[in-house]
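Students often ask what a holo structure prediction actually looks like on paper. The answer is less mysterious than it sounds. You provide the chain, you provide the ligand, and the output is a string of discrete structure tokens encoding the 3D arrangement of the protein together with FE2/S2 (inorganic) cluster.
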Amino acid sequence: MSALEERELQDYYEVEWDDINSELKAVLVEKKGKEESEIDRIHEEFARIIAENRGKPEALIEVLHQVQELIGFIPKAVQKEIAKGLGVSPGEVASVISFYAHFSEKPKGKYKIALCKGTACYVKGSAEIIKKIEEKYGIKSGESTDDGMFSLEVVRCLGACGLAPVMTVNGKAHGLLNPEKAINILEKYRKGEIKEG
Ligand code: FES
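The corresponding structure tokens follow.
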């Protein structure tokens, strides 16, 4: 066994899996219907990420990217292990996650809505659209619907100001919106009438 493999194995056992397991199982297996083997795959990969970055606080953002990609969200128990592994405080990990819209502590929906509240969109009524989506689906920015269908992020300028007000759904832009038009589009996604962008 190479030194790196030995180190990874040691790090694997240093990670406290119990809390992580219950958070992952509740979402991935019970809500999203994934196989339990998916959790084993996450264990191995997560242990590798921690092993490669142990004691490197400067790698925090890169590690968060990798973990967000791996799991799809960064639950509290995972944040704790990242903090321990890299040697930063749990508060620092939590504040980086809440600062960047790309990271999320809770699982995102099948359809990720990014609704622009930049200046051009705001003056053309994006606040009304946000309100309508919040009322219709019972979610606020950073949250997901209970059925896992939609998650909402309110963002600044999507770079398509000529189409204001704009939202993207899984990266696909929809512009010149009003509240009714936005809901119509989202309901088409729900029914599978618009394919993922
Ligand atoms: S302000 Fe909304 S796309 Fe630029």
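Residues 111-190 form a domain with the Glutaredoxin fold (CATH 3.40.30.10).
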